[in-house]
Amino acid sequence: MLLGGVAGVLLTVAVMTVLWWPRTEVTYRASAPAAIVYADQSPHFLGLLHRYSLSGEDSYKLMIGKSPGLSYGHWVDVDPALGVEGVESTAWTDSGVRVRFLTGHEVFVPARYFVGGR
Question: How many Å apart are CA 78 and CA 74, to the nearest integer?
Answer without folding.
Answer: 13
